[in-house]
Design goal:
The chain is an alpha/beta fold. Strands 3-4-5-2-6-7-1-8 form an eight-stranded mixed β-sheet. 35% of the residues lie in helices and 17% in strands. A hairpin with a 4-residue loop joins β3 and β4. It starts with 8 loop residues before the first helix and ends in a 14-residue tail after the last helix. α13 packs across α14.
Length: 447
């Protein structure tokens, strides 16, 4: 199935030929040409529209420059222009940002409103009043007590990811003010940060979550800026958070932390290993079926000093046996692997036969798991802590799975199973313990 088109109507019209564009514009009423500058449904991308359904929280969690502020401001504008009885709370990290970003900013409420419908800003009262009588009041999360007393029908909370001191108290007090109207709602716009409040909002019942990357708004951003940010931060943890809009968080009780993986990446990409590898293996965690989990395929090597280097994540999703076997063979040939280490628990002889059907010369070693995934992973996590594993690049999906494996068993990462992480564990274990070294009669250590 193709990805949904997240371009605005204006962007799609720009892709049409001149004749089609003229016909599309002819369909617009005459009045539209006087007001199109403020016609948000025309300019917005579909993901910037408020979701349908009976949500209580709309969480827009996206990269820098995505258009989060504009989406939040336009939602408030639509409420105020449609209903003079609405009372809206505008809450930023502090009162100064509520004014400078939410009200007076380039995408703030004053800038986006048509002149005849523009609200009046009363700075001394920290209040906006629309011509029809609708009102909005400004607050700062830095002063949670200021949210005691007033009552509202709606709220817009900006950059909730950085509501540090008093952020939880401010949110709770804000929720307690939403006692007007038939269906109180709040929109929260933010770049994701791994805060307690953000994790709470993401798991809140009745929440509608919109996620997106900086590049989605490229039509309205300077190409030089996009290029510079991609060069500087693409493929980094900061880039995933600030540009891709991904939530990068540590899980309580996880075997791996983001800091451990960042350190491993720094070792691998800073000249810390990989130049003189003495052995390369491909770890494989075969799927139980073509429609279930991914086939984890991780390439790793070890140098003469005993440093393991994760070279590639060649995993494939929802693949038939032939397809994942071909992916394994391709990775083994590309990296000139000495061995393919494949788990035999799911399929056993079938796994070996499938791989050798694709390539009879493939140096396959089958290993059997007698302990759970987390128990097998603990010694490998210890190698990361001691600085004996490095990453040669950014492997986001693998990182997320590693950081979801829990001490003592269990998994709290994406997907049903840590297939990529398990393949890495097999590969690193094989390198450190010498599994599959030597001829066909070499003993396979059971882990």
């Amino acid at each position: 199935m193709s990805e949904p088109d997240d371009r605005s109507e204006a962007e799609m019209l720009a892709d049409k030929n001149v004749a089609e564009l003229i016909e599309a514009l002819k369909a617009k009423p005459a009045k539209w040409f006087d007001t199109h500058e403020y016609d948000w449904p025309f300019w917005r991308r579909p993901s910037q529209a408020a979701p349908e359904g009976a949500w209580q929280l709309w969480l827009i969690m996206a990269g820098r420059g995505y258009g989060k502020t504009r989406a939040g401001a336009e939602w408030v504008r639509s409420l105020a222009e449609a209903d003079p009885s609405v009372r809206i709370a505008l809450v930023a990290a502090n009162p100064a940002e509520a004014r400078s970003i939410m009200v007076e900013g380039d995408s703030g409420l004053l800038a986006i409103a048509p002149p005849e419908l523009r609200p009046t800003f009363e700075p001394s009262l920290k209040r906006l009043v629309w011509p029809n009588g609708a009102e909005a009041a400004l607050f700062g999360a830095s002063d949670p007590e200021s949210l005691r007393g007033p009552q509202h029908s709606h709220a817009w909370a900006d950059e909730v990811g950085k509501w540090d001191h008093g952020g939880m108290a401010a949110w709770d007090n804000l929720m307690l003010t939403l006692r007007q109207g038939d269906a109180p709602r709040v929109a929260a716009t933010t770049t994701p940060r791994a805060s307690v409040l953000m994790r709470r909002l993401m798991s809140q019942a009745g929440a509608a979550v919109t996620q997106g990357s900086t590049i989605a708004n490229r039509a309205h951003l300077a190409p030089t800026w996009i290029g510079a940010m991609t060069r500087l931060y693409g493929g980094t943890r900061l880039g995933r958070q600030e540009l891709d809009g991904d939530m990068i968080a540590d899980v309580d009780g996880a075997l791996w932390t983001r800091a451990m993986i960042d350190a491993a990446r720094a070792r691998g990409m800073g000249g810390g290993g990989g130049a003189n590898l003495v052995r390369v293996v491909v770890g494989v965690d075969p799927p139980a079926s073509a429609t279930g989990d991914a086939c984890g395929i991780i390439v790793a090597g070890i140098d003469a000093d005993g440093l393991c280097l994760v070279l590639a994540d060649a995993s494939v999703e929802k693949a038939s046996p032939e397809r994942w076997a071909r992916a394994v063979a391709a990775a083994a040939h590309l990296w000139q692997a000495d061995r393919v280490i494949a788990e035999a628990n799911n399929g056993g002889d079938m796994v070996s036969a499938t791989l050798r059907t694709i390539d009879p010369a493939l140096p396959v070693r089958m290993v059997h798991a007698r302990r759970g995934k987390s128990a097998r992973a603990e010694p490998v996590a210890a190698l990361y802590e001691s600085g004996r594993v490095a990453h040669a690049g950014m492997f986001a999906a693998l990182d997320d799975q590693l950081c979801g494996m829990l001490v003592g068993g269990g998994y709290a990462g994406p997907g049903r199973s840590p297939d990529r992480a398990d393949a890495l564990v097999w590969a690193v274990t094989a390198l450190v313990e010498g599994i599959g070294r030597g001829g066909e009669g070499a003993r396979v250590r059971v882990v």
